[in-house]
Specification:
Elements lengths: L8 E3 L7 H31 L6 H30 L3 E3 H34 L4 H4 L2 H26 L17 H5 L7 H34 L4 H30 L7 H12 L1 H13 L1 H18 L1
Antiparallel strand pairs: 1-2
Helix pairs in contact: 1-2, 1-10, 1-11, 2-3, 2-10, 3-5, 3-7, 3-8, 5-7, 8-9, 8-10
Length: 311
């Protein structure tokens, strides 16, 4: 038996014990990471440099890309290093830091997606009040609230988890320090404290989800009342990228949380965790850039200027 005071490191779940496959995993994750850096980096740079994109929608999109890069940077570098150096170890403090930033960035992203839904609602349902309700100060305050909610939620869960006695070893059945896997190592019976944190999480998740659903019901009702087909197409084009990102984020999260224990296995848990932690940050730039002509045009101009300067 061991406890948290005697644990100095955790052992993560290896993808494979075969050296060739470990190197393959390293190169695969490196490619994914570089693609995400390129996609999100282009969006951040383009929005920051193009004055025409200094609007609430693109401000929130820039914040989303920053969160996506942070999320991947919290998980992938350590995973790549473990595959490259054929090790499974992560320090106790390193694991706590990873748990904190994973929770912080995921919660902040979910809250920011809710704020972006409000932006779409005002733009379509109350266009005459858009400038008043979504001024620069209001946008900063809403983005700050999303980040603050993620910070507080992560701080509460991380402090609670790593204050519990861990007496079931130090092997984490995941390729990164995931909160549910750390809790499995605990032998604590602090049900009241755990229940209170669960209530906070459920209220946050369910409150945001209800807000998104109600907002999109109102949005689709307003869009269907637009007389011109071109107007309806433009309105749908504004909403579809955000709706696709929300659907991807929520569906992978729901499947992770509600997956029946009877079908649980280390391999399936690895795949599911990959889907919710890695896929959305990589795919989000593609979703937004493919459906947004204004953003695509600005990215093309930026790349053209860079090529001209190089020549």
């Amino acid at each position: 038996m061991s406890n948290s005071s005697s644990i100095t490191q955790f052992l993560l779940l290896a993808f494979t014990d075969t050296r060739e496959l470990q190197l393959l995993h390293f190169w695969l994750f490196l490619g994914i990471y570089l693609a995400a850096l390129l996609g999100n980096g282009l969006i951040i740079t383009t929005i920051a440099c193009d004055q025409h994109l200094h609007t609430p929608m693109y401000f929130f999109l820039l914040s989303l890309s920053v969160l996506d890069l942070g999320s991947l940077s919290t998980i992938l570098p350590k995973t790549m290093a473990n595959s490259l150096w054929d090790t499974r170890a992560v320090s106790y403090v390193g694991c706590a830091v990873q748990v904190f930033f994973c929770l912080f960035l995921v919660t902040a992203e979910y809250s920011l997606l809710t704020v972006m839904c409000y932006d779409r609602y005002i733009a379509i349902c109350k266009p005459l009040h858009y400038g008043t309700l979504l001024g620069s100060r209001a946008c900063v305050h809403m983005a700050a609230a999303a980040w603050a909610s993620g910070f507080l939620h992560a701080l509460l869960h991380t402090a609670n988890t790593f204050s519990l006695p861990l007496c079931k070893g130090n092997a984490v059945d995941q390729f990164f320090c995931e909160l549910p896997q750390i809790l499995k190592l605990s032998c604590s019976h602090s049900y009241l404290r755990d229940f209170a944190l669960l209530v906070v999480t459920v209220c946050l998740v369910f409150g945001c989800f209800v807000f998104i659903v109600v907002s999109y019901v109102q949005i689709f009702r307003a869009v269907l009342r637009i007389p011109s087909e071109q107007g309806r197409h433009k309105a749908f084009s504004m909403c579809l990228p955000h709706l696709a990102v929300v659907s991807l984020f929520v569906s992978t999260g729901i499947f992770t949380c509600l997956k029946p224990p009877s079908i649980s296995s280390p391999s399936l848990d690895l795949v599911v965790s990959f889907l919710y932690s890695v896929v959305p940050p990589v795919v989000n730039p593609l979703i937004y850039s493919m459906r947004n002509q204004e953003l695509k045009e600005s990215i093309r101009k930026g790349i053209s200027w860079i090529l001209v300067d190089v020549e």
